[in-house]
Specification:
By secondary structure, the protein is α/β, with parallel strands linked by helices. The chain has three domains: 3-99 and 190-253, Adenylosuccinate Synthetase, Chain A, domain 1; 101-187, Adenylosuccinate Synthetase, subunit A, domain 2 (Orthogonal Bundle); 257-402, Adenylosuccinate Synthetase, Chain A, domain 3 (Alpha-Beta Complex), CATH 3.90.170. Helix content is 31%, strand content 23%. It contains twelve helices and 20 strands. A hairpin with a 2-residue loop joins β16 (330-339) and β17. α3 packs across α4. The longest helix has 18 residues, at 149-166. The two termini are 24 Å apart.
C-alpha cells in the first residue's frame, strides 16, 4: 500500500532533516527533493563516515532507493556530478525532473558579488536566487534542454544575453556551452518526467518521502522576508515542487531543534550573544554544512514553532540535538513576545516588527538525560498540540529514539 510523507524543517533550517530523512528512509522506496539547490547542506553520519549532501536526497545512502530532484529545484549540475561521487558503491537510481531549472556559473558569480557589496542577505553564494530570478523572468534553462544540443544552445544564448545585459558574465559563451555539454553527458540518463514517474509509483503502491531543504521560517512568502531563501520551504512547496496532488499526502513530519539557530542576517528574538550561546554553538557543532559559517544560537522559540506547525499542517514532531542542552543549569523557552509593551502570542508577518519583539520566557531546571527532560518535552507537546514521536541525540543513525 502506498504511503506519502513530507518532511520539513520548522525553524530557520539546520534542524537535522538530513539525518532524520536518512533514518526514516528505510521505510520508503523513493526519496524526493522538492525545492532549493546546492545552498542546502544535509549532513548524515553512517558507520563512522560523514556525508554532506547538497542536492541529492539524504535517504539514498540506504541503498536500493530512487532519488527524485523535483521541478521546484534549481540544480547546479557541475556540483551535482561531484556530489554523486559520494554515492559510489551505493545501489541507487536518480530521476532529475526535466522541468527543474539550472544554476549556471555566472549565477554564482553574481550572488557572490552581491554579498560582497554589502547588499546581500547572507546567502550561501551558490547562485540560487539568481537562478530563480531567471526562471521567473522566463530566461531560465531547464534540465530537459540538456538532452538536445540545439535547444540547449538556443536557450543558453537567451539566458546568457539577458544576464550579460544587466549583470557581469565572466565566461565566454562557447566555453560555457562546452562545459554544459560535458556535464550533460554524465547526468543525461537521469533526466526524465518526475511527475509521471511519481504518479505511476504511487498508484503502484510505492512509498514516497518528500524531503525539503532549509526551514519554514526561510520560506520566500511565509518566512522572515527579505531574509529568506528563494523557494517554498513549507510542506505546500512539496506539492508545487513535485507536481503532486495534496489528496495523496498521508502525513507531514516536522523537524525542530531543541534550541534555535539561524545563519545570515535577519531578526532572531531568542538569540544568545553571551557565553551560554557560545557553549551551545560549540557543543552542538553549529557551523554551516555548506559554508562553514558559525550559526547564530538562541533558546527554543515556541511562538515561531507554533506558527510553523500551523502553516505546514504538521502531524508529528521530531526533536533533534536534545543532548546539546544536557548539563545546563537552566533551560529557557520563549512562550510569547512583548511588542511595544503588549504581549502577543503569534509570529509577526513583518520582519520589522519581529526585530522589535522581546521574548517572554518559561524557565526549566536543567537536565542531564532523557528522563530528566520529560517535563520539557511534555510542555512543548502541550503548547504546540502535536506529539513528539522521535528524538535525535547525535549524528549517527542509531542515536535516535522512537517514542
Amino acid at each position: 500500500m502506498s504511503k506519502v510523507s513530507i518532511i520539513v524543517g520548522l525553524q530557520w533550517g539546520d534542524e537535522g532533516k538530513g539525518k532524520i530523512a536518512d533514518f526514516l528512509s528505510g521505510d520508503y522506496d523513493i526519496i524526493a527533493r522538492f525545492q532549493g539547490g546546492a545552498n542546502a547542506g544535509h549532513t548524515v553520519k553512517v558507520g563512522g563516515k560523514e556525508y554532506i549532501f547538497h542536492q541529492v536526497p539524504s535517504g539514498l545512502l540506504r541503498g536500493g532507493k530512487v532519488g527524485v530532484l523535483g521541478a521546484g529545484m534549481v540544480i547546479d549540475i557541475i556540483a551535482l556530478v561531484e556530489e554523486l561521487r559520494q554515492l559510489e558503491g551505493v545501489d541507487y537510481d536518480l530521476i532529475i525532473d526535466e522541468r527543474a531549472h539550472l544554476v549556471l556559473p555566472y549565477h554564482r558569480v553574481q550572488d557572490a558579488r552581491q554579498e560582497e557589496s554589502g547588499r546581500g542577505v547572507g546567502s550561501t553564494r551558490k547562485g540560487i536566487s539568481q537562478a530563480y530570478r531567471d526562471k521567473y523572468a522566463r530566461f531560465g534553462i531547464r534540465a530537459g534542454s540538456l538532452l538536445d544540443e540545439h535547444v540547449l544552445k538556443e536557450e543558453l544564448r537567451r539566458s546568457y544575453e539577458f544576464n550579460a545585459r544587466y549583470f557581469t558574465v565572466n565566461l565566454d559563451f562557447d566555453e560555457l556551452y562546452d562545459i554544459l555539454l560535458a556535464e550533460s553527458r554524465e547526468i543525461g540518463n537521469f533526466i526524465g518526467d518526475a511527475v509521471s514517474y511519481l504518479k505511476d509509483a504511487v498508484e503502484g503502491g510505492k512509498k514516497v518521502l518528500m524531503e525539503g531543504a532549509q526551514g519554514a521560517l526561510l520560506d520566500i512568502d511565509f518566512g522572515t522576508y527579505p531574509y529568506v531563501t528563494s523557494s517554498h520551504t513549507i510542506s505546500g512547496g512539496a506539492l508545487v515542487g513535485l507536481g503532486f496532488p495534496w489528496k495523496r499526502v498521508d502525513e507531514v513530519i516536522g523537524v525542530f531543534k531543541a534550541y534555535t539557530t539561524r545563519v545570515g542576517k535577519g531578526p532572531f528574538p531568542t538569540e544568545l550573544v553571551d557565553e551560554t550561546g557560545n557553549q551551545i554553538r560549540e557543543k552542538g557543532g553549529e557551523y554551516g554544512a555548506t559554508t562553514g559559517r558559525p550559526r547564530r544560537v538562541g533558546w527554543l522559540d515556541l511562538v515561531a514553532l507554533r506558527y510553523s506547525v500551523w502553516i505546514n499542517g504538521v502531524d508529528y514532531l521530531v526533536m533533534t540535538k536534545l543532548d546539546v542542552l544536557f548539563g545546563f543549569p537552566e533551560i529557557k523557552v520563549a512562550v510569547g513576545y512583548r511588542l511595544h509593551g503588549m504581549e502577543i502570542d503569534w509570529f509577526p508577518a513583518s520582519s520589522h516588527r519581529l526585530a522589535h519583539v522581546e521574548p517572554v520566557y518559561r524557565t526549566f531546571s536543567g537536565f542531564d538525560d532523557l528522563d530528566g527532560a520529560r517535563e520539557f518535552i511534555s510542555f512543548i507537546e502541550e503548547h504546540l498540540g502535536v506529539p513528539v514521536k522521535i528524538i535525535s541525540y547525535g549524528m549517527d543513525r542509531d542515536k535516535t529514539i522512537v517514542l
